[in-house]
Amino acid sequence: MLSYEDFVLGALTEEGLVTPESIDRARVSEPDRSVLDALIDLEILTPRQLTMARASVCECPYADLSQFDVDLSNARLIPRSVARKFDAFPLFVLEGLTTVGMVDPMDLQGVDRLRSLLRSDVDPVICEPTALRALIERAYSLVGAHGTIEDDEPKPDSADPATDAVLGTDDEPIVAAVNQIISEGVSAGASDIHIGPDEHELHLRYRIDGTLRCMQGPPLSSHSGIVQRIKVMANLDLTQTRRPQDGKFRYVCDGRSIDIRLSVLPTIWGENIVMRLLGAGLAVTGFAELGCSPQTVSLLEHATSQPYGMILATGPTGSGKTTTLYTALALVNTPDRNLVTIEDPVEYRLPMVRHVQVNTEIGLGFASALRAILRQDPDVILLGEIRDEETARIAIQAAMTGHLVLSTLHTNNAPGAIARLRDLECPSFAINASVLCVLAQRLARRNCEQCASPYEPTPALVRRFLGTDDSHQFLRGRGCPKCMNQGTKGRVGVYEALSLTPALQEAIESHASSGAITEIALREGMTPMWRDGVEKAKLGIIELEEVARIAAGSLEPGLDVGRKEAA
To answer: What is the pLDDT averaged over residues 65-75?
Structure first.
């Protein structure tokens, strides 16, 4: 008599997804496991293909959870133990019928148990096991812990009554909720996690690729517990709820350490939480991977190969300046060099690099830390930001006396860095003697490779950046599960690189105006940021609207310097 597994294997074979040879191979490779599991382990079959084949055999609908926005509050409808025992979760409730996602919809005992708990008719649908179990854990971590249904299965006695007395059983769901919120933020690649109370709702939002995205989160009733838990993690004052507090802590997720900077702000509806996730490791291996053009890569690699001088990255907050400088730092990080960084906060960690955290409360600012570091025999110094005249003066002196200095400035474009250094009382001869190059940058949202398709930008936008040349085909993401239906996934840098050529140095020495310096830079071959963005749009990496967004405030066509550069 054929078993259920045989029927599934037969369906897979009919569809051409497996062969008798691959089935035999799976049986031999993992004799202690089911053939279906072995086929997935050997990557002969995907979980989705297997689930759809099982749905065909069971004559049961297949539900792709990535395509649905499931209401996590449905966790209140059944106890966590039942959801785990039967691998089931209520997906939708409509007019007395509950659609339940299950790994095994043929489990009649489970269907009957769910029907009695839900007190409604049950329509079972089959889901991929991994996705369904992840949904169950997420839902009960964030919501189910505060449900009204008591778990009907016995709980083991506590092994440590004293610990339970301190924590209390009510704290355990809060700990799970906080862990789930942070873990999901790390997995989604979020830079910030926002937890904000409103009059009737607790909002959970992740900043992903520079944009805040709303997520389903815990109920408002759990807000105070979550705030208290996060305060404990950051060593903050639990009794203070009327003043802002700042702190930090380290969170380990899948073996990776994440430093988290915490800000707590009291509002009329309660304390608002913002957590900044600071990556512990640098994934980028070179300037080209950041999105730099070959010309810019050549300029930066030449600058980092110099024994002394200053490399500046400019742009607004959140434009990727630190990542760019750390990419340069990684290239020069060799055992024969002493590398030191001064940052607020330290965002990355590299081996053999001495990282110094600014602490204004004890008088350790950028200037004082830089003075101390110069007595530590450094070869390369990464200075998080040049904020004042004293820091600028010491950094320039360091760059002129045998040190390679990497730092950031807040300017809209690359030529603006020269004017900013002048404002900080840096003499022209010192700027010419120390600055190797300036890189202005922005981060543009990258089109999702999975769902990018041709589209037509508005004629006004095409005229603005391409003039009469409208022969190019541009791409835009439509939105798919891979990009969370945003149409974009990840970001890419858009750059404007300035090298101090002899003509520019002469203009700086003669105290030329910012406009004149910009005009000379364009004549000397500097590619303005908008043009770098247009090239990336032509390649389908970003959409043309992103060029308009990131070009605001920087050099762009239509300005006088743009017309002169075009001439």
So the answer is: 86
pTM here? 0.75
State the number of CA atoms in the 13 A half-sphere of 418 facing the CB. 30
Host H or E run for residue 418: helix 416-423
Which pair of structure tokens corresponds to residue 283?
Answer: 């994934």
* The pLDDT value given to residue 340: 95
Tokens for 258, please give them.
């994440």
| Alpha carbons 329 and 324: distance in angstroms, whole number | 9
Give the model's pLDDT for residue 100: 94
Closest CA to 8 of 46, 35, 41, 27: 35
Lowest mean pLDDT among 35-44, 159-168, 175-184, 476-485: 159-168
The 3-class secondary structure across 499-528, one letter per residue, is ECCHHHHHHHHCCCCHHHHHHHHHHCCCCC
Name residues whose C-beta falls within 8 Å of residue 263's C-beta, 6 or more positions apart in sequence.
244, 245, 246, 273, 274, 275, 276
Task: Say if residues 280 and 273 touch (Cβ distance below 8 Å).
Answer: no
pLDDT by residue (tens digit) across 432-474? 999 999 999 999 999 999 999 999 898 888 888 888 766 788 9
Half-sphere exposure of 280 (CA within 13 A, CB side): 13
> What residue type is assigned to position 476 of the chain?
R
Continuous segment of H or E residues that includes residue 391 = helix 389-400
Two tokens, residue 39: 């086929």
Structural contact between residues 434 and 310, judged by C-beta atoms closer than 8 angstroms: yes
Q: HSE-up of 104 (CA within 13 Å, CB side)?
A: 11
> Do 195 and 204 meet the contact criterion of CB atoms below 8 Å apart?
yes
Strands 245-253 and 256-267 turn out to be antiparallel
Q: Does 564 score more than 80 pLDDT? A: no
